[in-house]
Specification:
Shape: globular
Strand order of the largest sheet: 1-2
Distance between the termini: 24 Å
Order of helices and strands: HHHEEHHHHH
Radius of gyration: 17 Å
Strand content: 5-15%
Structural class: mainly alpha
Number of helices: 8
Helix content: 40-55%
Number of strands: 2
Largest sheet: 2 strands, antiparallel
Low-confidence stretches: 4-8, 13-31
């Protein structure tokens, strides 16, 4: 039963990732990991380093500020912004962007998560990669303090 469930989850992830092929294709053409094609980090921070940069989401102002020092101190600090924020090929970019898909680079962790209590939770109880690891200050699993 668990084997069938694992296979179905794997199949679902595989199909889901295949639907996202256009976004992945841009990164795949870029060369070495973290060197995605598109605007440079400097281009992105040209706007996102502004502490006053916001957008409205469900009637609330949401900050779009990114602290360069925090980003560089992250486990992903050597990556280009567009390695995670796929679909951005020019600045200014479209307002609506594809969500960050950690499983693009972390497929094994995504498969493990999908079969855990975290992956099976639904609705508000659903835990995402960002829930524990953070967004721009991405912390490695070893520093999260979770029991194994």
């Amino acid at each position: 039963m668990m084997r069938n469930l694992a296979f179905m989850i794997f199949l679902g992830l595989t199909l889901g990732l295949s639907l996202a092929a256009p976004a992945r294709a841009v990164a795949a053409q870029a060369g070495p990991p973290g060197q995605a094609r598109g605007p440079s980090n400097e281009d992105c921070l040209g706007c996102h380093a502004d502490k006053g940069l916001t957008k409205q989401v469900a009637g609330k102002a949401v900050s779009l500020f990114t602290d360069e020092a925090v980003l560089k101190g992250s486990v992903h600090g050597r990556l280009e912004c567009t390695a995670c924020h796929t679909g951005i090929t020019e600045v200014p970019h479209a307002e609506k962007l594809p969500p960050v898909a950690c499983q693009k680079c972390h497929a094994m962790a995504a498969r493990t998560d999908a079969t855990s209590i975290h992956g099976r939770a639904a609705g508000a109880a659903r835990v995402t990669c960002q829930s524990c690891h953070g967004t721009h200050a991405v912390a490695p699993a070893a520093k999260l303090g979770a029991e194994r």
